[in-house]
Design goal:
mainly alpha; single chain; 66% helix
């Protein structure tokens, strides 16, 4: 029995091929984001090592931590207490969430706009990558931005006594704007992927 023949790829003209190959111009952008990811990893370990050093009584680490959580116009914390530790941990979580956002942009953007990675069957393939496209990527990014905004808003509420009402209202309004934008993006994506069925004319009796 003869094996089925695969259709030969259609030859692309010079100009369309040049335009199509221009997608590789995005490769340096994704490589730059990988370098930015390295900077975030370094920053994370610096902050974590200072937090551990401060907990163990290192004076320079304690000064760095207290300077990092100090807010302009408010008295500088004098010691490592529960609130100070919470603010540092929230800052570390913020770094992790931004790193997750970078991974989604790097991996999802490369897979969608540059070239396939052929990760099907790989045990470490992200679940969301199997059905990623431009619309799914936008929803994922919007959700990640909401998470990052939530961390910043929580840090503000922890120090609510040193902020004025206008600042609190403005940051809350920005967060709500992110929420509404994400809902709008998800709704538009649902409309494009699941269009409403056409109305059937009423049957004659």
């Amino acid at each position: 029995m003869n094996a089925p023949k695969h259709p030969s790829p259609r030859k692309i003209g010079i100009l369309p091929n040049l335009i199509f190959m221009s997608r590789w111009l995005q490769l340096p952008l994704y490589l730059g984001l990988i370098l930015a990811q390295c900077v975030y990893v370094y920053h994370f370990w610096v902050e974590l090592s200072d937090l551990i050093g401060a907990a163990l009584g290192n004076a320079s680490s304690l000064d760095h931590i207290l300077d990092a959580v100090a807010i302009a116009g408010a008295p500088r914390p004098e010691k490592l207490n529960e609130q100070t530790i919470m603010l540092v941990v929230l800052a570390l979580i913020d770094v992790v969430m931004i790193s997750n956002l970078l991974i989604m942009v790097i991996v999802g953007g490369y897979e969608t706009f540059v070239s396939r990675m052929n990760l099907e069957g790989h045990p470490d393939q992200p679940e969301w990558l199997s059905h990623v496209n431009a619309s799914v990527l936008k929803v994922k990014l919007a959700t990640a931005i909401i998470g990052i905004s939530s961390i910043h808003l929580l840090k503000t509420f922890i120090n609510a006594n040193v902020y004025d009402v206008k600042t609190l209202v403005a940051q809350t309004g920005i967060h709500v704007t992110f929420l509404v934008s994400a809902l709008a993006i998800a709704y538009c994506d649902r409309l494009m992927t699941h269009p409403a069925p056409p109305h059937e004319p009423p049957s004659a009796h």
